[in-house]
Amino acid sequence: VQNYLQARLAGESASAVVMDVHNGDLIAIGSAPSFDPNKFVSGISVADYKTLTDDPFRPLANKSVQGTYPPGSTFKMMVALAAVEDGLIAHDETITCRGFVEVGTQRFHCWKRGGHGKINLRDSLKNSCDVYYYELAQRVGIEKISAMARRFGLGARPDLPLNGIATGLMPTKDWKSKIIGEDWRIGDSLNSAIGQGFVLASPVQLATMTARLASGKAVVPRLLKTIDGVDTLTAAAPPLDISPESLAAVRGGMFAVSNERRGTAYSTRIADEFLQMAGKTGTSQVRRITKKERSQGVTRNEDLPWERRDHALFVGYAPFDNPRYAVSVIVEHGGGGSRFAAPIARDILLEALFAGPPPLTAYPASQRTRIKNERKKLDRRVSGA
Hints:
Elements: H1 2-8, E1 14-20, E2 26-32, H2 46-54, H3 63-66, H4 76-85, E3 95-97, E4 100-103, E5 106-109, E6 117-119, H5 121-126, H6 130-140, H7 142-151, H8 173-179, H9 186-193, H10 203-215, E7 226-227, E8 230-231, H11 244-259, E9 278-284, H12 291-296, E10 311-318, E11 325-331, H13 337-340, H14 342-354, H15 368-383
Helix pairs in contact: 1-15, 4-6, 4-7, 6-9
């Protein structure tokens, strides 16, 4: 699975993490592009080192644990849980999306310009409606949103035997006052609700969050299985103390993302009904869209320089009815999460579930010829041929 993950990420500036949802075992954890460590053994040349340090894809960084990114819409499950657990919205209550909300003199836009109309929790995840989460943020507030996120492993440094592990950031009013010297504003809460603004998370943290969503337990990532023959897993993960109804509501929305028509990741679903994937797409902006640009039409990612394109994200787990593995994928400046991160995540999950190449029947029929041809190229990369 590790070899396949690295081969699948080839050509991208990206990271992926696969975790066992029951015990936190890291089945695979990778960062791309990679580099040849043998060059450092006897002293790397100045030219070779400069090639590595000047590469905009940052091959020397272990993005899976060192990289922190705005999680985009993959964060929306945390906001939803904070609201439903506090009784501030019912699972079936609808909020009307007109394509934007106004706070004072400022407009906060949904990605869908014309809006989604009346939308409930399940469909807000399925369609990734931003306005729904702007409303929740105003009801819940940043303190409860950040507290819920920390319960799922965000904003906490993972205890792993690796260098430079990032903590990420789950902001609070006190944090902004101390670090930035400014008061928290409503707009900060709205930006945070869609995984933008000050919120930052690493790929391993997002995989942990997803594993906890799938299992309902506070699993922690584990890289070393035994030390001197002694198992490092000392106790079963405790329950998260989140109501089953709230977890079921969020999981239902994640199922709809991948398995219902018009779900943002429907095109990258797993076709095997016994292995169906639940997930959430995410796209995080790295630039500010001006009012003028929005009025004239937002510039497409492919028309922007690489470094100004959005990050593409996806988190998911499978099988939906009996979760086994969780996955997170981030493609730096990749564009939309549904188009660029979700296919990678789906393919890696299938590789883990089958402990090797999955049958073509696991893919939608319309994609099998393409997948078969792509698989041949990947197999050569995995084998090193």
